[in-house]
Design brief:
homodimer; mainly alpha; Arc Repressor Mutant, subunit A; 2 domains; elongated
Chain lengths: 260, 260
Amino acid sequence: MGTGERKRREREEREELMISHAGRLLLRDGFQGLNLDELARAIEYAKGTIYQHFCTKEDLVLAVATRALQLRAELFERAAGFTGRTRERMRAIGVACCQFAVVHPKYFQLDLMLHSQSFWMEASPERRMAHGRMGERCFRVMDTIVRAARDAGDLPSGSDADAVKFSLVAVTMGSHAMALEPEIQRLCRLRDPLEATRRNQDLICDGLGWRPLLTDWDYAATDRRIRAEVFPEAAWLDVAAPGTSEPTPPAGRRRKGGRP
Amino acid sequence: MGTGERKRREREEREELMISHAGRLLLRDGFQGLNLDELARAIEYAKGTIYQHFCTKEDLVLAVATRALQLRAELFERAAGFTGRTRERMRAIGVACCQFAVVHPKYFQLDLMLHSQSFWMEASPERRMAHGRMGERCFRVMDTIVRAARDAGDLPSGSDADAVKFSLVAVTMGSHAMALEPEIQRLCRLRDPLEATRRNQDLICDGLGWRPLLTDWDYAATDRRIRAEVFPEAAWLDVAAPGTSEPTPPAGRRRKGGRP
DNA sequence: TCAATTATTGACTCAGAGTCAAAACGTGGA
DNA sequence: TCCACGTTTTGACTCTGAGTCAATAATTGA
């Protein structure tokens, strides 16, 4: 009979409700501050019902994080529609990352939280796997571009696709994470976190020998095209675009050891 | 009278005891698992006495983190004693970072935890400032080298010292953090986390145009010198040294799209 | 309509961070 | 040596919130 089907759907909708409300509260109060009694009240179900879906608080939060990762994957896939030189296409992914950090800053912080301690231990294997699958979706997009770059000769033929992806992921997450840190902002006199992140991506790409190099191509124009073609909503790109990756000033403008 | 002096010293010794024991428990059980009742029992003081030194659990943990950062600063300062080209000297700092991650892997994870949410809010301003000061110690070492590099013409004259430091910090922390993640290890088929981190540092330096570039210098020899002169205990350097930064294989060895 | 099965509930347990009134200790003066 | 006063230490207590589970409600099939 069809009853079972309806039940399954209702259950799914309720889980959806729980995840989205938990997301809201999580953004507001952080992990420690997320209160399951409050969540239960907000969604008008008993706490026990929440535990019918999620084995622990961590399990619930991981589900929220996976949802966030899904948003990221969707941005990646949109960015993958951009056409141009392979490095331009990877640049579109970089823009997608920044766009994610701009639109969902708190989700980004949540992502950082996962890189710590006992989270994974407290979550169910199913949730862990679901998260892994979403990570794969993101990596697949990058992988396609990296391989295309090698095939096109834009990347040195000896490049290890996995190593290239790792470098890009590491520099991107590291830059975002450090840029969020007030202490680092102070110590590095950081103006624009997004600009700094994108510049670091540029440095890595140049270091990898991914052609065309920063000096050989007008990437500000690329950014304008990315904006126009796949991320019309990325207003922040306008601000960063003019001075992309800090043009080397005419030699001699800076004094040797000086600083204001 | 001299009694006050003795009291101050005793108080300091007790705080020391608390921090070092808290560190032990923290490494064993993580932040969530750290139990102040257990700590009190271990150091044979009442819980109330702990709260005479630290306003919250977070405050205590931040003190432990600052202690860890001190260890890192000491490694940095040792590395600063290395002589050679400016990029070699910065490389010694990179080795120091890896050495820290090798010797105190858990402390490194603790460091990552600080980059999240409400920690700083729950700690006292004094502790926050103490941590900031220790961060400055690390940055000072880097700053000296970066400025020397610019003055020597090893870095382009237009380089912004703060931006260079940010790039290095971001890539290093990001690489370490990502390399610890089992999910990332799987997705990137990561063999040796340390090697990957150091390779990313190399890429950033090359991207910055920090001479001599990877292709123009025998950095494996530099690593041997670093090992001999400042980090004799860094046995892991031996393993990574031979194949530093993945030599480009003779062209044509890899098939185009293939993967086992 | 009703018994059997399944789902939901929220009062309860339990762990552990943080508190504070009472007890212990130290000090200086008689 | 003893006492009175201020300071430090103590651990039983409070309070919050995650996770449980027996009681209750809803659904189903006969």
